[in-house]
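REQUEST ID: PR-0412
SUBMITTED BY: lab tech R.K.
PRIORITY: routine
TASK: structure prediction, single protein chain
INPUT:
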Amino acid sequence: MSNWVKFDIDAVEPEMGAPEPGRLVSGNPTFRTWNVEEAEGGLYAGIWEATPGKWKIVYEEWEYFHILSGHSIVEEEGGEPVHLKPGDSMVLRPGFKGSWEVVETTRKDYVIRV
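STATUS: complete
OUTPUT:
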């Protein structure tokens, strides 16, 4: 077994998903997630993609991500909207509450620690 993992989404079957019905704000977004790494201690890494729409988010986990393509807007409750485009990176900490809006189909790579 090697001590490295290449982010090769062609080698991983994507998981399909969507926002929970009670969290949907607008549109009909769908998700594809290529989880390429799962490590002990609740650590995950991979690629996530979503189609246009808006939904409420509540983070109990810690997540770092980097936008690869598209345009999204993340807004914390009581905060200002943050427009995310290719090249942008962000960390969402446990306790974050707000919304995620995909304006243009967005793809990001991520590392999550639960």
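NOTES: The chain has a mean pLDDT of 96.
REVIEWED BY: pending
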